[in-house]
Amino acid sequence: MRIAYLINTYPAPSHSFIRREIRALERRGVEIRRFALRGHGAPLVDPGDIAEQERVEYILARGPARLLATLGLEAARAPLRAARALRLALWLGRRAERRYLRHLVYLAEAAWLARRCRAGEISHVHAHFGTNSTAVALLAAALGGFGYSFTAHGPEEFDRPEALALGRKIAGSAFTVAVSAFGSAQLRRWAPAADWPRIEVVHCGIEPGHFPAPAPLPEGPVRLVSIGRLVEQKGQLLLIDALARAARDEDIRLTLVGDGELRGALEAAIAARGLARRVTITGWVDEARVRAELDAAHALVMPSFAEGLPMVVMEAMAAARPVVSTYVAGIPELVRPETGWLVPAGDGAALAEALVALARTPRPALAAMGLAARARVLERHDIDREAAKLAALFAGAPARRRAAPGWRAEPAAVPRPAPR
After folding, report:
1. Is the pLDDT of residue 410 over 70?
2. C-alpha angle 368-369-374 in degrees, rounded to nearest 5
3. Domain of 165: which CATH number?
4. What residues make up the domain containing 92?
5. What is the mean pLDDT of residues 315-339?
6. What confidence category does residue 412 fall into, taking pLDDT thresholds of 50, 70 and 90?
7. Rounded distance, CA 256 to CA 293, Å?
8. Is pLDDT above 90 for 401?
């Protein structure tokens, strides 16, 4: 099989799971051509990301003139398909708060992708994230006559399902992937029941070989690590408040691994609460450093307000570290009482209590929780096992595409939430 993968920004520090998925598919003999709309922008630090960047074709790098010329060539080659794709782009623009120009740009990007797929004898495009990358895949499929699928991760798709025309994207796909049962349920809210069979659950995964015998828990004060973009939805500001409360009773240290727009606010909050000697912010680091930070910690803390199913939770569990997180999205499907603590999202007092409970848990009991976490994640999230599911879906995509509803503008009877 020869499949095109399309991502908005790739590679990026927070998208190593896509690289992992592609590698697992390639191990199964699936040929993957990598396309992205744009690069990450900031310098990459992980050697794997740097090497991957060399294999990606960046569509926007072709420049407006070449993209428009390609759109003209596609229109001349297949006028009827081009007219349908234009109509679809305008419909998508109207749904997205009348952002017509943006979706005409997507159409030009789609023309380039369709032409490259035809030249490379690629018959299927798979997009990650049900946002602009899937819009381009949908339009490219309309232009090129091939199939597409996409993986919806959340939370963005679930925050703006109507503006993103999520139901239309599901209806036109050969299949749509959710990364958790929760994600599958959210997708079904925006698709008619006739399209529910298109929705499949394929977990993001870890490579077990990268997590050999786990390191023992460190000696000394309790050390926590939190890994991810420094943004509001990850809840790091609330974590600083909770740590300030918990630190009144227990000696707890925290390392924040990642970077983002909230870094300045976090540094100010750390200073204001007198936690400068307890909290470290590393910025973005490579996978080896992430693993070292997990090995140096007693637990991962992930106080997110909104999520899909975080890869860092899986990685921490594979490293035999308990997890403190929140009851949101797919996290409760993975983190159970025997593997960590879950608290209501946004409840700083409950988060502080969980941190104190963790600090007071005897180390042998904490180690046993970590081993239970490791067993659970290795059972549920082996990337080769999940890639086998995805490869089977790709193999069956042509038949499933023939059952898709074609190029109609909007799926019929898409459910809408009842007014309160």
Report:
1. no
2. 95
3. 3.40.50.2000
4. 2-205+384-402
5. 97
6. very low
7. 10
8. no
